[in-house]
Amino acid sequence: MKFDIPDNKKLVFETLIPIRWGDMDAMGHVNNTTYFRYLETVRIDWLRAIGGMPNPLGEGPVIINAFCNFYKQLEYPGDVLVKMYASDAARTTFETWATMEVADQPDLIYAAGGATTIWVDFPKQKAIELPPWMRSIVG
Fold first, then answer.
1. Cα(44)–Cα(127) distance, rounded to whole angstroms?
2. Closest by alpha carbon to 58, among 139, 128, 117, 135?
């Protein structure tokens, strides 16, 4: 099943990730699981940059689903430009999307993925409303 990335989204962050030799599999291309690591890296770097890291004694984001569409094979050596977008803020959730390009081939999408994030009160283990500051970023 392929998931489409919506046209209506807001660029919130981008980062450059070097492709490591160990990211490759026996076929000589970046292993599919590594794309999810790239998605995780951009998401964590973004959350850190905006002060949105989870607080186990308080509240924060939890990923409730994630996907990745693979279009072209990433290969070593190179750098992946990962652009992260946000959209669809709801009461307790928002969507994030990311595209992966090779830095020296801008605008050629190698893979794209996304995740649904829910805001949680960790001690209560319960979803809560998005804080206004986060809603203003992802809304």
1. 20
2. 128
99/115 Cα distance (integer angstroms): 12
* SS3 (DSSP) at 42: helix
Cα gap 95→116, rounded to integer Å: 5
Contacts of 19 (CB under 8 A, 6+ apart): 30, 74, 75, 76, 77, 78, 79, 80
- Residue 1's pLDDT is 66
pTM of the complete model beyond 0.85: yes
Q: Class of the 10-138 domain?
A: alpha beta
Condensed to tens digits (0 to 9), the pLDDT of residues 84-114 reads 999 999 999 999 999 999 999 988 999 999 9
Domain boundaries, the chain: 10-138
Helix (H, G, I), strand (E, B) or coil at 89: coil
- State how far the Cα of 17 lies from the Cα of 19, in Å rounded to an integer: 6
User: For residue 116, what are its two tokens?
Assistant: 């649904």
